[in-house]
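Supplementary Methods. Inverse-folding protocol.

Structures were first reduced to a discrete structure-token string of length 144. This string, shown here, constituted the complete conditioning input.
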């Protein structure tokens, strides 16, 4: 059974491993520790039994949330964990006064784009050469 709760320092090492598994320019363990400790950040962990299987996070500025990460362990993808994390992140953000959510996603990341569109995000524009390794445009998406 999937359980989603606020990320703590205890699971940051495992979260950083999931990040490294999925991204060419992963956040470091320190990056996650800094986020977990910051009052303007909100990071959630998805658990199956005693194992972290995914996470999502955002930075909050007034009534806006910038979603920075949504990631699921490769061997657990395709089980709606990303959808559950995104919905939980939005609900937690709304409790903190967030009413607009923004994110960037690689143009080639069709699975993520489909997830975001399925949950109500719309494409707002393109950031040319936003990503590195490999260099790629980022699609800016928003949900209000």
């Amino acid at each position: 059974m999937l359980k989603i709760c606020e990320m703590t320092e205890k699971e940051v090492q495992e979260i950083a491993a999931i990040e490294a598994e999925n991204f060419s320019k992963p956040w470091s363990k320190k990056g996650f520790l800094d986020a977990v400790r910051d009052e303007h950040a909100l990071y959630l962990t998805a658990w199956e039994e005693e194992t972290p299987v995914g996470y999502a996070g955002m930075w909050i500025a007034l009534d806006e949330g910038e979603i920075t990460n949504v990631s699921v362990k490769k061997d657990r993808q395709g089980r709606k964990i990303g959808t559950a994390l995104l919905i939980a992140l939005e609900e937690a953000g709304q409790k903190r006064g967030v009413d607009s959510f923004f994110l960037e996603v690689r143009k080639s990341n069709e699975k993520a784009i489909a997830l975001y569109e399925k949950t109500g995000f719309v494409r707002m524009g393109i950031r040319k050469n936003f990503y590195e390794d490999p260099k790629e445009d980022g699609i800016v998406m928003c949900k209000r």
